[in-house]
Amino acid sequence: MARKKNKVRATFRKNREVRTRENDLTRSYGDEAAEDHLQGERISGKGDLTRKRTVVGGELIEDEAGEYILPDVDTSVCRPGRVLRVQGLVSIVRDDHGELFSCATRRLLKTLATDQRHVVAAGDHVWFRPEGDGEGIIERVEPRRGLLSRTSRGRRHVLVANVDQIVVVASAAEPRIKPNLIDRFLLTAEKTEIRPVVCINKVDLVEPADLMPLVGVYSQLGYQVLLVSATTGQNIDQLRELLAGRDTVLSGQSGVGKSSLLNVIEPGLGLRVQTVSTESQKGRHTTTTAELFPLASGGHVIDTPGIRQFQLWDVIPEEVPGFFRELRPYVSRCRYPDCTHTHEDFCAVKDAVADGRIDTRRYESFTQIAAGDEA
Ligand SMILES: Nc1nc2c(ncn2[C@@H]2O[C@H](COP(=O)(O)OP(=O)(O)OP(=O)(O)O)[C@@H](O)[C@H]2O)c(=O)[nH]1
Ligand SMILES: [Zn+2]
């Protein structure tokens, strides 16, 4: 019988130990579980390192050495799958052949979730035990990366896991292009550390040359920029290629053409996307149930109204400079360690703006966001 046992080595670093452990556990079981683990048994190790051993339901989840042990899975009966969406206690899991299963979650894993939140999130890679009739039991959740989450009542709720990229969609016209809004979307993408791509749609409505200065700024910052038109099909192949085999969140202001782009990339998919949007009209800003839509080319697009508009991530003013790529090299060179880079003298950021090393418009975006101004 094939048994699969995985050990994920937790990296310990002085001072960052607790955070690192939180991240490690978060990747695997979600934040709520992580919080509980951290309240668990602690054993002092060398220096200021603190180590603990966690046992849940009689099963060892983590040993003193910080080895994180995933539950055993009997691979002769269990199958790998992907969670497309979570509906209450049921997760819709798609196996490698595209077959769908309504899965409950094994009790051991549930122990790791606390009160309201499910331990399984949309996008999770799982091992599940098929139980016939399109049903199954999730036995194990693989470690996560690329998380989109939301904080509610002081807890982080994972909306979707294992996202590869965020495509920030803007439109060249109707609605007119709003660079500051692109910056806001990029900032939230930077916060998640998921690769952002800028996609400007409706280029059929403008002179391409008019977009070049803006495209130049983003390209220089290292962002990939695509100029497309859902109407004429311009560069749609490029966008299709970008989505193939990856898990992508499409976000952007309402009306920029996200649904239209998905429709031309994959007819039929758009229809389903429409259904989701219509269903969620009632609670437009509160619906956060993420759903993965498999693409014929492999990969998925992830759609939820909340994620589309990107209103879920709160950013505190002090972290804003870190999310502007071009500001990062300068922030540590200001005279005052708590420099806000707005009104201070001897500010390396302002100096860089003054002599053109930082784009003025981007700097203005930065000051607006850091001041907490509405878009
Ligand atoms: N001229 C032009 N119009 C487009 C293009 N793409 C979409 N549109 C139009 O823009 C409008 C909005 O498109 P949608 O696809 O609904 O926009 P959306 O971003 O999905 O909007 P939400 O669902 O509200 O988030 C529709 O009337 C489309 O026909 C394009 O490339 N060129
Ligand atoms: Zn400064």
Automatic annotation (TrEMBL):
**Which UniProt keyword terms apply here?**
Cytoplasm, GTP-binding, Hydrolase, Metal-binding, Nucleotide-binding, Ribosome biogenesis, RNA-binding, rRNA-binding, Zinc
Q: Name one GO biological process term.
A: ribosomal small subunit biogenesis
Cofactor(s) recorded in Swiss-Prot or TrEMBL? Zn(2+)
Q: Which organism is it from?
A: Aeoliella straminimaris
- Name the record gives this protein: Small ribosomal subunit biogenesis GTPase RsgA
Xref: InterPro entries: G_CP_dom, NA-bd_OB-fold, P-loop_NTPase, Ribosome_biogen_GTPase_RsgA, RsgA_GTPase_dom
> Would the keyword Metal-binding turn up in this protein's UniProt record?
yes
The GO cellular component terms are: cytoplasm
